[in-house]
Specification:
With about 425 residues, the chain is an alpha/beta fold. The protein folds into 3 domains: about 130 residues, Rossmann fold (3-Layer(aba) Sandwich); about 100 residues, Alpha Horseshoe (Serine Threonine Protein Phosphatase 5, Tetratricopeptide repeat); about 150 residues, DNA Cyclobutane Dipyrimidine Photolyase, subunit A, domain 3. About 45% of the residues lie in helices and about 10% in strands. The strands form 2 sheets. The protein has a 5-stranded parallel β-sheet, with helices on both faces. The protein has a two-stranded antiparallel sheet with strand order 6-7. α4 runs parallel beside α5, α14 packs across α16 and α15 runs antiparallel to α16. The longest helix has 19 residues. It is globular. It starts with a strand and ends with a helix. The model has no long low-confidence stretch (mean pLDDT about 95). This is Deoxyribodipyrimidine photo-lyase. It comes from Putridiphycobacter roseus. Belongs to the DNA photolyase family. GO terms for molecular function: deoxyribodipyrimidine photo-lyase activity; DNA binding; FAD binding. Its cofactor is FAD; (6R)-5,10-methylene-5,6,7,8-tetrahydrofolate.
């Protein structure tokens, strides 16, 4: 009898919870990965994330082959694929690691129903977070404010386990075909090889350097965590002994995942009801200038150009660009969230929605609506020598650079009146 381990956001052998459990429970384990057409249909042919994931899947396949096994890779609809698998193979069990996003929850429920109807065991395990769902909560439900959540999170944190792969549980001497990117309708995008750095020197200096976009002062870990190429347990173990500031960023990630799981409507609806009636101006011309990095505000434009060129953006600059779109240009936060979702290498639904709602003042632990980032002050504080700006805006300081699309002082007054007049006062 065959047992399948379904890789999703866990593209690694090391410290993989569900994979470890399955190889201990069964002796004929076949690891698998599905290029899900429901997800891929929303991507463009040149989406650079597809190339990154494809390389990661190839690396995973090579890792299995190096220990005498192989990764079976599928392209299609997961429900149809599992329907076919259980009809053509004597499958006993399918293990995977838990997905907390709305689509993943719905998909997994459908697959579990199909499998259990055929007496195939389906189990999922906590792997991409330290605490999931309601594990960090109050008596009356989920925390909606970060600080008490983080306090409780830290109080619950114990020594973390490492889940080891039992190689003897893997099916040996198997060989599976790997579809090409072209087969799936994508073209390979050459890009600078991404690397993460969670060395002691980076983490010890993280609090002091993380807000300066011209410095290489962050870990560049987010894309690797997004696809589970590195274990969150490994990262938290390092962070808790090195940098509380860095650890807090990891806790923010879990806070937003818990919120998304508990309040899935927050993907498209303001978390706080009194903000749901806001009538955004949504000036399309302004939005296009913001997307292109041509607003005339250098720190904003540099960030957007970095995003468009690389699929990445420094976190401090993400906050600045988001505030500018919503509060200087009066554009719906959902427009910005969708653009980031289209471009970001490390796009992660819970964090992206959570942070955009934070910028708009509509979310859980939201910044108050009257907190409006001044892009000039942000530049003076975090890029005083224009190093970051000059890197991404070669025409900065010349007549070729556009003038400011709005007057910030006037835009600030306008947005404050906008919120005051439209917020529903309970």
């Amino acid at each position: 009898m065959i047992a399948y381990f379904w890789h999703r956001r866990d593209l690694r052998l090391e410290d993989n919870h569900g994979l470890s459990k399955l190889t201990q429970d069964y002796k004929e384990v076949i690891p698998m990965f599905i290029f899900d057409t429901t997800i891929l249909s929303e991507l463009s042919e040149t989406d650079r994330r597809m190339s990154f994931i494809y390389d990661a899947v190839k690396d995973l396949k090579n890792a299995y082959q190096s220990i005498g096994s192989d990764l079976q890779v599928f392209y299609g609809d997961p429900v149809e694929i599992f329907n076919t698998l259980i009809k053509s193979n004597p499958v006993e069990a399918v293990y995977t690691n838990t997905d907390y996003e709305p689509y993943g929850i719905t998909r997994d429920a459908a697959i579990q129903q199909i499998l259990e109807q055929q007496n195939v065991l389906f189990q999922s395990f906590k792997d991409q977070v330290i605490f999931e769902k309601e594990e960090v909560s109050k008596v009356d439900g989920l925390y909606q404010v970060f600080t008490p959540y983080s306090r409780k999170w830290k109080s619950l944190l114990k020594e973390l386990p490492t889940f080891n792969l039992k190689e003897s549980g893997l099916k040996k001497k198997v060989e599976f075909h790997l579809p090409t990117l072209h087969d799936m309708g994508f073209s390979y995008q050459s890009q600078n090889k991404l690397h993460y750095n969670i060395s002691e020197s980076v983490l010890l200096n993280y609090a002091a350097q993380r807000d300066v976009p011209s410095l290489n002062g962050t870990s560049n870990l987010s894309t690797f965590l997004r696809f589970g190429i590195v274990s969150i347990r490994k990262v938290v173990t390092i962070a808790k002994n090195t940098s509380e500031t860095f650890l807090n960023e990891l806790i923010w990630r879990e806070f937003y995942m818990a919120i998304l799981w508990g309040y899935p409507n927050s993907v498209s609806q303001e978390f706080r009801p009194k903000y749901r009636q806001l009538n955004w101006e949504n000036n399309v011309s302004y939005f296009k200038l913001w997307c292109a990095g041509k607003t005339g505000f250098p720190i904003v434009d540099a960030g957007m150009r970095e995003l468009n060129a690389t699929g990445l953006m420094h976190n401090r600059v993400r906050m600045i660009t988001a505030s500018f779109l919503v509060k200087d240009l009066c554009v719906d936060w959902r427009w910005g969230e969708a653009y980031f979702a289209e471009k970001l290498m490390d796009y992660e639904l819970a964090s992206n929605v959570g942070n955009w709602q934070w910028a708009a003042g509509t979310g859980t632990d939201a910044a108050p609506y009257f907190r409006v980032f001044n892009p000039d002050r942000q530049q003076e504080k975090f890029d005083p020598d224009f190093k970051y700006i000059k890197k991404w805006i070669p025409e900065f300081g010349t007549d070729a650079y556009p003038s400011e699309v709005v007057n910030h002082k006037e835009a600030r007054e306008k947005i404050l009146n906008f919120y005051k007049s439209q917020i529903i006062h309970a």
